[in-house]
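Lab meeting, item 3. Inverse folding demo.
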C-alpha cells in the first residue's frame, strides 16, 4: 500500500473507481477535478503496483475549526485489508495538521462496514438526514469526530495550522507533511 496526494493525472482512475463504487450517486468528473485542485482540501490515493485501489478526500480550510470527510472508496477486491482505515487516518491527520477541532461526515445507512470503521476511529453519531442519498432514498448518518482527542489517543502531537506552499507528498501522520 502506498498513499500519496492525488494529482490531476489520477482523475481518470479515480472516476473509474467512483463509478464502480457509487453507481447511482457518483460525483461528476468536473466536481472531483475541482476537489482535487482545491487549496481547501486534500485528496489521497492508494496505489499498488501502479494500480489505484482507493482514494479519499477531506475538505479542511487551513485554520478553520471544522473539516469534512468528502469521500472514501476502496476497490471491491481490496476491501477488508485496512486500506480504508489507512486512508481515513491520513485524511484525519491532514485535518489535524490544518487545525481542525471537529471532523464531520455522512455515511449511507445501508453501509454498516463504513459505519463500523468510523465508529472504531472515534466518530459519534450526531444526526440523520432522511433520504439524503438519491435516487436510492437512503438515509445519511451524520457523524462527528473530536480531532484533538483522536490525535492524542494516537500520540500525534498538536500542530499549529500553517499556510500551504508547494504541494508535498507522503504521510502527514506525526509529521508536518502535506500541511
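The presenter then showed the designed sequence:
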Amino acid at each position: 500500500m502506498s498513499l500519496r496526494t492525488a494529482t490531476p493525472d489520477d482523475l481518470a482512475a479515480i472516476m473509474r473507481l467512483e463509478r464502480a463504487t457509487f453507481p447511482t450517486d457518483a460525483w461528476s468528473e468536473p466536481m472531483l477535478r475541482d476537489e482535487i485542485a482545491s487549496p481547501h482540501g486534500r485528496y489521497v490515493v492508494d496505489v499498488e503496483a501502479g494500480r489505484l485501489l482507493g482514494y479519499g478526500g477531506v475538505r479542511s480550510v487551513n485554520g478553520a475549526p471544522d473539516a469534512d470527510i468528502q469521500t472514501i472508496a476502496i476497490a471491491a477486491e481490496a476491501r477488508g485489508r485496512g486500506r480504508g482505515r489507512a486512508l481515513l487516518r491520513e485524511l484525519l491527520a491532514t485535518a489535524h495538521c490544518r487545525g481542525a477541532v471537529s471532523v464531520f461526515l455522512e455515511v449511507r445507512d445501508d453501509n454498516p462496514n463504513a459505519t463500523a470503521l468510523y465508529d472504531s476511529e472515534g466518530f459519534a453519531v450526531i444526526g440523520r438526514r432522511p433520504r439524503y442519498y438519491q435516487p436510492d432514498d437512503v438515509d445519511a448518518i451524520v457523524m462527528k469526530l473530536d480531532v484533538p482527542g483522536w490525535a492524542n489517543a494516537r500520540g500525534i502531537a498538536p500542530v499549529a495550522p500553517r499556510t500551504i506552499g508547494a504541494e508535498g507528498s507522503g504521510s502527514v501522520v506525526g509529521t508536518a507533511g502535506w500541511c
